[in-house]
């Protein structure tokens, strides 16, 4: 009975307020007709509604969904079919609207891209035009500067030519006078003083030497001006080749020039087989500029010459330093030689005359010790100074000193010590502090007419006046 009752129930789940399927009047978004005087809504707009939740039935033969029955009335199926048609119609309308919207957006995007492309092309054209104008202005300015420099060079060359012409005229005058002098000498021999002739010849030689020097200076100036002209032309051609090079980054305008395409000196030559001439060898031969190569060669020659001159100056400075050191050593030796003690003549004469009532004072041992200590200090100071000077010298310099002073060379350090000892001996004499001190008798002769005392020692003879 219960199952039969369920099968006879009709699906009346439409909204009581608006009559649409899928929700009840509690969730209807339209105003309630009971509040508006009982007038039902005549709107045909579809309102999005949440489907009703249905649970499974315990009766066999009934569908799981709450709205799906095996035996549906015709009214419910018609309503469902009309709702499906309306949904499909709305989907078609929404699809067409979306398609039109997408097409409009695509048109707007294409128009925007076209505008950006046109603006970019316009900016690129303006930049190219600006670069072309700058390049033309720079080329004209460089041409003006080169023309000014060329005018100056031409003026200097003309001036040198005029001076050369004057020199040629002077030489012609000298030759003419010489020929006239020879003719006069042959026709009428004249007795001329030898001094006068020598003076005239010396003056003539001086004039000739001055003219030759002037001519040499002019030739040097002409050669220097020619070199500067060639360098200026080479730099101008190089700049032109760089500015008009097809691969320049400042623009894509390609201009052909009849001059060389070399931008700079090649740092290396690509290796290519001799039997198979490739494009690299052709490109290298085309990019090589003989004028620039000559300038580079002359620059290298100047650099090598400057290096040689610098080495010569360094060698001369080293020789001068050696001479200064020798002079310093000689001055020290002379200063040490001037410190020798004098001889007390009165004491010598008193000893010769005999005993006297006045006893001569005894020599102070303190003074003797002071003099000996001073000499020892001077000797040690000179020895240390010589060792210090020789310490900075190498083997070749020490061998040169040995050859000059006649000292045999053994090894470096002992030879330096021997040289220092020899120099000290030359300045102070042989050091006899470690030898035995023996007193030697001396004989003094005094003559009546002389005031000189001669002391003959066993070791050496010293004349004192």
UniProtKB/TrEMBL annotation:
Biased composition (Acidic residues): 455-465
Region of interest: Disordered: 99-145, 261-286, 429-465
Domain of life (superkingdom): Eukaryota
Alphabetical list of InterPro entries matching this protein: Znf_CCHC (IPR001878)
Residue ranges, compositional bias (Basic and acidic residues): 100-142, 429-440
Protein name: CCHC-type domain-containing protein
Species of origin: Chara braunii (Braun's stonewort)
All copies of domain CCHC-type, residue ranges: 15-29
Record key words, sorted: Metal-binding, Zinc, Zinc-finger
MF GO annotations: nucleic acid binding; zinc ion binding
């Amino acid at each position: 009975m219960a199952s039969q009752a369920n099968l006879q129930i009709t699906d009346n789940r439409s909204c009581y307020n608006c009559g649409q399927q899928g929700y009840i009047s509690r969730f209807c978004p339209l105003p309630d007709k009971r509040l508006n005087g009982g007038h039902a809504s005549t709107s045909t707009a579809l309102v999005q509604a949440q489907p009703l939740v249905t649970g499974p039935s315990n009766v066999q033969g009934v569908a799981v969904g709450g709205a799906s029955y095996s035996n549906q009335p015709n009214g419910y199926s018609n309503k469902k079919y009309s709702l499906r048609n309306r949904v499909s119609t709305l989907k078609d309308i929404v699809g067409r609207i979306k398609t039109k919207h997408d097409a409009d957006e695509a048109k707007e995007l294409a128009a925007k891209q076209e505008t950006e492309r046109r603006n970019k092309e316009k900016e690129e054209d303006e930049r190219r035009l600006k670069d072309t104008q700058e390049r033309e202005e720079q080329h004209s300015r460089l041409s003006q500067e080169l023309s000014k420099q060329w005018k100056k060079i031409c003026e200097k060359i003309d001036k040198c030519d005029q001076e050369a012409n004057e020199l040629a005229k002077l030489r012609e005058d000298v030759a003419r006078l010489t020929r006239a002098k020879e003719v006069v000498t042959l026709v009428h021999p004249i007795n001329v003083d030898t001094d006068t002739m020598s003076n005239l010849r010396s003056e003539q030689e001086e004039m000739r030497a001055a003219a030759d020097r002037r001519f040499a200076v002019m030739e040097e100036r002409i050669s220097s001006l020619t070199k500067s002209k060639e360098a200026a032309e080479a730099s101008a051609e190089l700049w032109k080749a760089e500015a008009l090079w097809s691969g320049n980054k400042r623009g894509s305008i390609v201009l052909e020039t009849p001059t060389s395409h070399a931008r700079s000196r090649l740092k290396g030559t690509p290796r290519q087989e001799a039997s198979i001439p490739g494009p690299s060898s052709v490109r290298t031969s085309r990019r090589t500029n003989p004028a620039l190569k000559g300038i580079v060669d002359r620059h290298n020659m100047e650099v090598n010459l400057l290096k040689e001159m610098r080495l010569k100056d360094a060698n001369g400075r080293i020789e001068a330093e050696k001479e200064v050191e020798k002079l310093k050593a000689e001055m020290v030796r002379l200063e040490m030689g001037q410190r020798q003690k004098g001889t007390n003549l009165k004491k010598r004469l008193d000893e010769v005359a005999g005993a006297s009532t006045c006893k001569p004072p005894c020599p102070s041992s303190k003074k003797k010790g002071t003099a000996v200590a001073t000499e020892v200090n001077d000797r040690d100071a000179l020895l240390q100074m010589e060792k210090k000077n020789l310490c900075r010298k190498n083997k070749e310099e020490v061998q040169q000193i040995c050859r000059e002073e006649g000292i045999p060379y053994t090894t470096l350090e002992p030879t330096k010590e021997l040289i220092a000892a020899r120099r000290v001996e030359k300045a102070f004499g042989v050091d006899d502090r470690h030898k035995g001190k023996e007193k030697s008798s001396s004989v003094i002769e005094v003559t009546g007419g002389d005031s000189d005392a001669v002391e003959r020692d066993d070791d050496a003879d010293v004349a004192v006046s």
